[in-house]
């Protein structure tokens, strides 16, 4: 029992131990003769909690160094030995963990079909590329977005036309050849190159927004609207340069 | 009673008992524990953890001080004594308690029977 008492005493803050540890042990030796060992143990446990959680941290015996200010100059106190209380660090860590978990959870919920504000995606950006695929690929809208990106990123007119023929309803066609007119897409590719998908956000079953980055560093929104018919045809595809959305396009 | 003294009031039971124990003479920790038990007729027992937590606080507040009297040569015990400020604070709390007891007595005193 005495060993346990010593062990618990050792967990007290150093300044408290320096001052009172020896005396507390002496009292334990005196008082335990009366058979109050359990009470003494409970008391030291309570003391341990009190010292770490309730009492302000007392500095060790090493005094802080203070510089003497030159005439008219500022004075500084060096508190290199000072650090926040352990209890404060513990609770700070706990609060950070809870907040971090809350943000992560919210971020993951935001990838579902619920209608969370798009700003949540901003939080996901800070976690990097891993969360870009957080919307399951199985959703028809996400599948169509990936198929469009695959076709677009080839830079090949034929691949884009195939996508348009296969998946886009009522796509505009060249009057003479009747081939899908993918001029807007090829033009985009020639100016900005391939787009790398960064993250996606789906607010409704039939709508998805992909945030992608071009080689020049510009961010793009790709909005895809699909039909909920069985074959999930694409009703509209639109790409918008985020920089241009805020400032006029550069000539 | 000055503002400096009032800042310490009211004293917690542990603080009050410790200051009261040291009001008579300087004592070491175990002596204080025994004196507190004697004062309260065994109703209030201070553990070493509670005692030294309070001693630390009282030392920081300047209500008690380590005694300059040398401890017994072969003992690691330290002695503590009441400072002038500690004595003033204790007196102020006694006054507060006396007023409280007076008030309590007047409240619980049974009313005098009315004359018919």
Molecular structure report:
The complex is a heterodimer of chains A (251) and B (116). Chain A has 251 residues and is α+β, with helices and mostly antiparallel strands. Chain A contains nine helices and six strands; from the N terminus they run αααββαααααββββα. A four-stranded antiparallel beta sheet of chain A has the order 3-4-5-6, sandwiched between helices. In chain A, strands 1-2 form a two-stranded antiparallel sheet. In chain A, α1 packs antiparallel against α2 and α6 packs antiparallel against α7. By secondary structure, chain B is mainly alpha-helical. Chain B has a three-stranded antiparallel beta sheet with strand order 1-3-2. In chain B, α2 packs across α3. Chain B is globular and about 70 Å long. At the A-B interface, α2 and α3 of A face α3 and α4 of B.
- According to DSSP, the number of beta strands of chain B is 3
Q: How are helices and strands ordered from N to C of chain A? A: HHHEEHHHHHEEEEH
Instruction: Find the structural class of chain B using helix and strand composition.
Output: mainly alpha
Q: Any idea what the shape of chain A is?
A: rod-shaped
| Strand order, largest beta sheet of chain B | 1-3-2
What proportion strand of chain B? 5-15%
Low-confidence stretches of chain A: 60-67, 112-131, 247-251
If you average the pLDDT of chain A, what whole number results? 77
Number of helices, counting only DSSP H or I runs of 4 residues or more of chain B = 5
Q: Give the helix proportion of chain A (percent range).
A: 40-55%
Give a quick rundown of the structure:
The complex is a heterodimer of chains A (251) and B (116). Chain A has 251 residues and is α+β, with helices and mostly antiparallel strands. Chain A has helices at 2-10, 14-31, 37-54, 86-109, 119-125, 140-154, 157-167, 183-192, 242-246; strands at residues 65-66, 77-78, 195-204, 207-214, 219-226, 234-241.
Question: Which features would summarize this protein structure in a list?
Answer:
heterodimer; A: 251 residues; alpha+beta; 4-stranded antiparallel β-sheet; two-stranded antiparallel ribbon; 9 helices; 15% strand; rod-shaped; disordered C terminus; B: 116 residues; mainly alpha; 5 helices; 3 strands; 57% helix; globular
């Amino acid at each position: 029992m005495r060993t346990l008492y010593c062990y618990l005493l050792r967990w007290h803050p150093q300044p408290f131990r320096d001052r009172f540890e020896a005396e507390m042990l002496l009292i334990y030796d005196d008082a335990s003769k009366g058979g109050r060992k359990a009470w003494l143990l409970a008391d030291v446990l309570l003391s341990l909690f009190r010292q770490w959680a309730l009492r302000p941290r007392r500095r060790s015996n090493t005094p802080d160094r203070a510089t003497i200010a030159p005439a008219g100059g500022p004075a500084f106190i060096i508190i290199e030995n000072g650090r926040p209380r352990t209890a404060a660090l513990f609770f700070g860590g706990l609060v950070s963990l809870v907040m971090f978990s809350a943000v992560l959870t919210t971020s993951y919920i935001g990838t579902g079909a619920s209608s969370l504000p798009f700003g949540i995606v901003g939080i996901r950006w800070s976690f990097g590329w891993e969360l870009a695929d957080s919307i399951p690929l199985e959703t028809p809208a996400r599948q169509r977005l990936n198929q469009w990106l695959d076709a677009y990123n080839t830079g090949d007119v034929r691949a884009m036309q195939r996508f348009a023929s296969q998946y886009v309803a009522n796509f505009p066609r060249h009057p003479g050849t009747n081939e899908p007119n993918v001029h807007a897409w090829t033009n985009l590719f020639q100016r900005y190159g391939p787009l790398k998908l960064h993250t996606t956000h789906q607010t409704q079953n039939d709508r998805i927004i992909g945030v992608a980055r071009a080689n020049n560093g510009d961010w793009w929104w790709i909005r895809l609207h699909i039909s909920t018919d069985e074959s999930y045809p694409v009703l509209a595809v639109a790409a918008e340069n985020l920089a241009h959305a805020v400032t006029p396009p550069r000539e | 009673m000055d503002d400096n003294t009032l800042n310490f009031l009211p004293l917690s039971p542990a603080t009050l008992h410790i200051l009261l124990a040291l009001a008579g003479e300087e004592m070491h920790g175990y002596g204080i524990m025994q004196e507190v038990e004697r004062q309260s007729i065994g109703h209030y027992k201070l553990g070493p953890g509670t005692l030294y937590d309070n001693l630390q606080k009282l030392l920081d507040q300047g209500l008690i001080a380590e005694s300059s009297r040398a401890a017994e040569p072969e003992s690691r015990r330290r002695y503590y004594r009441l400072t002038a400020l500690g004595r003033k604070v204790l007196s102020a709390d006694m006054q507060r308690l006396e007023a409280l007891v007076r008030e309590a007595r007047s409240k619980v005193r049974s009313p005098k029977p009315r004359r018919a």
